[in-house]
Amino acid sequence: MHPSVTRVQEALADAGLSTTVRVLDAPTPTALAAATLLGCDVGAIANSLVFTADDVPILVMTSGAHRIDTSVLAENIGAQHIGRATPDQVRDTTGQPIGGVAPVGHPSPMRTYIDVALREYDELWAAGGIPASLFGITYDDLVRVTNGTEVAVSR
User: Fold this and answer.
1) Phi-psi category of residue 144: left, alpha or beta, with phi > 0 → left and psi -120 to 50 → alpha
2) Long-range contacts: 62-66, Cβ < 8 Å, 24+?
3) CATH number, span 3-151
C-alpha cells in the first residue's frame, strides 16, 4: 500500500473509525468522476482543498456540488486574504498530492474548515492520500477526526 494511504488508514483507525481506504485501479481526478464511480450524488464527495489564509495553509473540506467563494470563506473565518495553495505547498503541508489529499494523515495537524453543505449527506466520500483512493465517512466523524470548524464556504 502507498505510504500516504497507510498514514490515512492509521489516522482513521487511531480515531476509532473502522472505515477502509479503497485503492482504485485508476484515479478519480474530479468530484464528478468519484461520484460516478461510487454511484452517489456529487455533493457527497468531500473535496480536500488547501488554501492559504493570510499566508498560513488551511484545509477546506467542501462539497463536490459547488465551488468555494473565497470572499465568503475569508469573512466567515476572519481572514484578510484567502489564496489557493501551490502544488508544492499542498505536498509540503499534507504530504499528499493534489487530487489525493485526505482530511487526515498529514505530517502535522492543519487548521481545517468543513463546508456545512456536506451535512446534507448520510455518507461522504473523501480521498485517501493518493488520487486513486477513497473512503466513506459521516459528516459528524469528519468534523471530529479533523477537529474541523463548520463553516459556510459559499452563498
Assistant:
1) alpha
2) 62/115, 62/117, 62/118, 62/153, 63/115, 63/117, 63/118, 63/120, 64/30, 64/31, 64/32, 64/34, 64/35, 65/31, 65/41, 65/117, 66/117, 66/153, 66/154
3) 3.90.960.10
Domain ranges of the chain: 3-151
Nearest by Cα to 129 from 98, 104, 106, 100: 100
What is the tens place of the pLDDT at every residue in 105-132?
A: 999 999 999 999 999 999 999 999 999 9
Residue that is written with C-alpha cell 499528499 in the block: 96
> What are the two backbone dihedrals, phi and then psi, of residue 43, each rounded to the nearest 5 degrees?
-65, -20
What secondary structure letter does DSSP report for 39? T
Contact present, 136 and 23 (Cβ < 8 Å): no
* pTM of the full structure: 0.94
Residues in a beta bridge with 135: 126
Q: Which residues pair with 124 in a beta bridge?
A: 137
Q: Hey, how many other C-beta atoms are within 10 angstroms of the C-beta on 15?
A: 14
Residues 6+ apart with CB under 8 A from 40: 121, 123, 125
Beta-carbon contacts of residue 82 (< 8 Å; ≥ 6 apart): 51, 52, 53, 70, 71, 73, 74
Question: pLDDT band at 48, cuts 50/70/90?
Answer: very high
